[in-house]
Structure formats: C-alpha cells, structure tokens
Amino acid sequence: MFIAPLHKFLTATNHDDKSRSPTIFWLALSLTFAAIYGWLGLRQAFGGEYIVQDDARQHVFWMMRFVDRQLFPNDFIANYFQSISPTGYSTLYKIAATIGIHPLLFHKILPLFLSLISTYYCFSIALEILPVPMTGFIASLLLNQHMWMTDDLASTTPRAFIYPLFLAFLYYLLRRSLLPCLGAIALIGLFYPPYALVAAGILVLRLLDWEKGSLRLSRDRTNYLFCTTGLGVVFLVMLPYALDKSVFGPAYTAAEAKTMPEFAPQGRNAFFRPNPLDYWLTGRGSGMFPKSLFTPVTHCAAWLFPLLLVWRSHFPLAKQIQSSIWLLLQLFLASSAMFLVAHATLFKLYQPGRYTAYSLRFIVVFLSAIALTLLLDGVGNWAKTTETKIGIKNLVAIITTAIIAVVVVLYPCLVDKFPSVGYVEGKMPELYQFFQQQPPDILIASLAPEVDNLPTFSQRSVWVGKEYAVPYQKGYYTRFRQRVNDLIRAQYTTDRAILQKFINQYGVDFWMLDRNALTLEYVKDYGWIEDFDSTPKAIASLTQGKIPVLAEAMTSCAVFQNGIVVVLETSCIAKLTGS
Q1: Is 578 left (phi over 0), alpha (psi -120 to 50) or beta?
Q2: I need a labelling partner for 285 at 20 to 30 A (CA). Which of 101, 131, 395, 425 fits?
C-alpha cells in the first residue's frame, strides 16, 4: 500500500528513527523555504533605487548619522527617534555602519537573516512539543508565511527582532540551557524591552505545577534557578529604561489621551473606540487579538487542535505530545497579564496589544502545525486499518494529504502580492537629488505627503511630517504639534509679517508645497491636518477668498518643481515679504 510508507515518512518521530536524517531533511527544507521567501523580499527591497520599508522611515533614517556625523544637526525629529531606539538595536546598526554597511542597505538585507534564525528556533521548539520533524517544517513554514505577509519583519524596526530572540528564549528554556536562555533574555531587553517582561512572567509561572486538581509550587529546583537568574537579567536590562529621564517624556496619561483627537476612533492613532469588544479584543493597539492573527488563513487550523484532543483516540500521534506544550499556556497567561498591566498604566508601557500580538501568533503557529500533523496521522491510520478492495480509503487519504500539502505549501501563490511587507517606493528621484545637493544643515518646511520621504532619500532635516507624528510622549508631541500649528498658520497666512517671522524664528531654508496646497479643497480633504488648531482658521480664510502670501512666491521663488510639488527658497520669500 502506497499510503503506509507515505504515512510513515510524514509522521515518523525522532524515537522511530535513531538517525538524524529525517530531522536534517525537514530542517533543510524549512530553511530552504525561508530563504526563498527572503529572496522574494530582497527582490522587492532592491526593485528600485528609492525603496524603503514604511516604518523604517521613522526608525532607520537617523542612523545615517553613523555614516556622516554632519547629517541631521540639531534635528528635533531625528533626536527623538534616536532617543527611543533600544540600545541593542541602535548598536547593531552602528556596528554595521562601522564595517561599511549603509543603514538603508542593512535594513533591506537583515530580514533574510532574521527569518532564517527564526526558522531554526521555530522548528526546534515544535520538535520539543511534538517530536515529529514534519511538524517543525509546518510550523516554520506557517511562521515564515506570516512574517512575509505582515510588515514586522521587513521593517527591521525593534519589533522585527522579537521573532528570532523570543523564539530563542523559548527554545533554550525548554532545553533547560541556562546561559543561552539568560543571553536570549538580555537580548530581548536590548532589542524589544516589552517582551523581557513577558519572559519574566513565564519564568514566574513555571514555579507553579498542576497536581491532583490544584496548583502547587514546583518541586523542580531548576525552575527556581531559571526564575531567579532570569529575573535578575530582566532587572538589569530594564533598569536603564526605568531610570531614563528623557527630555521627550513623560508618556501621556490615559485621561490626557482621551482628550486628544489623535487617539479618537477616526484619529491617526485611533485607540479609544466606543465599542468595548473592539476596544478590548480587536482594536489596534488596545485589543488583545491582532487582526493579522490568522494571516495566512491556514493558521485557522489551530481551531482544530482542541477538537482533535477530544477525539485523540483516533489520532495516535497525540500521545507523543510532550509536557513542553504547557509552555504555550504559560506564554498566553504571561502575555495576558502584561496586557492588563499595560492597560492599567496606559501609556507608560506603550500599547497593551503589543504584549499579546506576538505571543498569540507563536501559539497559533505551533497549534496549527500540531493540528495538521495529527490530522495527517489520523487520515493515514484510518486508511491503513480497514482497507477496502478498491482502495477507496487509500485514495481518500492521499487526496486529503495532497490538499493539505498544497494549501500549506503553495498558499503564497494564492496571495495577490507576496511578500506583502509594506515597502514604499519614492516617486520623485529628481527631488531627492536636488535636496542632496544642498548643504547638510538645511531645514525643509512642508505639509506635503512627500516630505515623509526626504529624511530617508535626501538625508535632510524636515520641520514636520505625518510619518513622524507619534503622539505618545508629551515632551515630543507637544512640541511637534506646535510645529505643525505654526507651519499651517504661516502657510495660509495673508500677513507677510507672520510668514517672515516663521522663517526667521525657525531657520527654514526651503518650503515645499503640493501644487494645489493653497486651495480650500486641499485643506478640507487633507485628513492629517484637520485635527490641528490652525486648520479651521486656514479654512475660514480660504473660504473668504483670501489669498495666502505664499501664492505669489510659488511662481517667483521656485527653485525646483515637477507635476506634483514646488520647492521655494525662503531667502527669495524674504524679499517678497519686504524683509
């Protein structure tokens, strides 16, 4: 029977085969798929000269200071994003720059290596839970598909490192390898501090055992060793963050945030939603369950896991599930606890949803892989036991196996654009080159969407930009908001003195405008500026037919223009205003 050897090949455990050949085969296959996905990601990243991942425009642009110290001098925005960058994250980029790898290049090639490391640890953890090499392959494949269908990994922002580092922590914890485990905890704290607290929660929970229907303290001294030393490492790596007295702090309180339009349901950083279910369960930042939890949809196989356990008599491989699976419950409980603590201390521990988002993704990946393995095992055993004369069961088992294999392996082929990781392509190379030719200490004022790309592609400072409107720390956003208000007021003023005062006071060298920026329709339709105090006044002025001072400068002071934007030189504007 063909189904018998196929079933044995797919569901063989490490105990069945003393050699490591099956494990090596499935691990190699896992790494191969990770490399293929990574290569597809690299093709997107290097598909043009001006391409960058969306969130990297916030977290990577300032690191070009490592290459040229003259860039972004006294830049308020660059200083802020440098201040919130975790130590390990910024140090890694600095080391790369020191050996000659440009930050923008490094941010593009790094996801491939992070995915390969994540693949290895994901595969290894799966084997600790269910010692079937195919389970490790399925788990790592599902994880890679998720990583390349969401933007976390490709962003190479601090959250990208949670995949390899936290998986490493879980693996070494299961293997009871103390020093590597402590090293992983330290790296988590240095790259993505919130999850060091989740790791601490897991270590505490492992001091509890479920015996005879009740909770008791663990009798395993190793758990106490891991807990005490691990908590010590967490304390050391988190202490600098606790003692940090940044000029950009403190964080907004919940009461303050509720009064801000940025956090309203329609705001740029919508958080406080009126529907309690949305707020607590699925809301971005506030909800426990990320909307990408079942991306790809094959992750829905996790729902089968409890049903398969109920009918485990039909799935013999279920007996091979190790006690290590309880780590997934501990991960869920620790993350949920931090989720609640973050809500109680809003926004001191940043967004509550960040504490469960990655944990739940890991849990779903492993449960899906186990469920699919048990399903294949059950179908194979069913076909082998009572075979009919015409081999119907064989046929059903083969078709079922083929369907599962095709859906899991070839799922990316069904996606419209894979990888889908949020790369942004700059469409104005001449504009970027124009600003690159200017002195490195210039300051550009603009409300145009294109201003978000200038720090990355031109390496020049901007006064404000939608991409940099991060409303969590009062010391930063209060000043940022004032900057936007001052810019709106100056851009739409009919008073030459107000315009000239803005230019002189803030040292603006260039003013970039969308071609229709000075029209009433533009101000009404440009959603980002509608929540700023100066916008209603600008709308009122334009409604009355008043013409902004800058309208005259758009023709006489233009030093660069294309079909979308016009760049004005402020020294020319000064002459028009009579200064």
Answers
A1: left
A2: 425
